[in-house]
């Protein structure tokens, strides 16, 4: 976890500028997310600077938006205009919330950059209500074009912590293998292929 936090702390101030090129994909993602979070209590993990949380908070009842990087959370708090949105530093592997606390959990573009993402999914399962929804969009780097692979190479040189390299199909299969039923999947066009996944708990 320390390596990942250091990278994100170092790059917190430039994160929003870096993400601007994917604005169209993110706008599409907000449209997919808003109906799911309408009048719901939401937990967002790996919120970064709070881009998603700030764009969907008007639809939700309340959002707890968390990140392991203190610098990211400082950036997120700076222009938070909503009393319904609370930012805090948390470890997604050891969340301080009670079992079945949230209607929706969002973890966006994070499962591919953490070690042992299956453990993060287990912790998400714990804090999500039995009839709750997991929204887990992730960059699926294994489907990169040549130019995407070049960008990924230089990001890795800069210290970007890529732990899992999935195709869209592999990523959705990974979710299913770890106790989730994918009720909606979509491939969004971004600088790297972006797989949107909306899941519910699989019956044991």
Describe this structure in words.
Keywords: Methyltransferase, Transferase, Ubiquinone. Its EC number is 2.1.1.163. One of its GO terms (molecular function) is demethylmenaquinone methyltransferase activity. This is Ubiquinone/menaquinone biosynthesis methyltransferase UbiE. One of its GO terms (biological process) is methylation. This protein is an alpha/beta fold and 204 residues long. It has a single domain, classed as Vaccinia Virus protein VP39 (Rossmann fold, 3-Layer(aba) Sandwich). It is built from 8 helices and 8 strands, in the order H-H-H-E-H-E-H-E-E-H-E-E-H-H-E-E. It has helices spanning 2-11, 15-19, 23-37, 51-56, 70-78, 117-127, 146-157, 168-177; strands at 41-45, 62-67, 85-89, 102-107, 128-135, 138-139, 180-188, 194-201. Strands 1, 2, 3, 4, 5, 6, 7 and 8 form an 8-stranded mixed sheet that branches. The longest helix is centred in the N-terminal third of the chain and has 15 residues, at 23-37. The chain is globular. The protein starts with a helix and ends with a strand. 39% of the residues are buried. Residues 1-5 and 157-161 have low confidence and may be disordered.
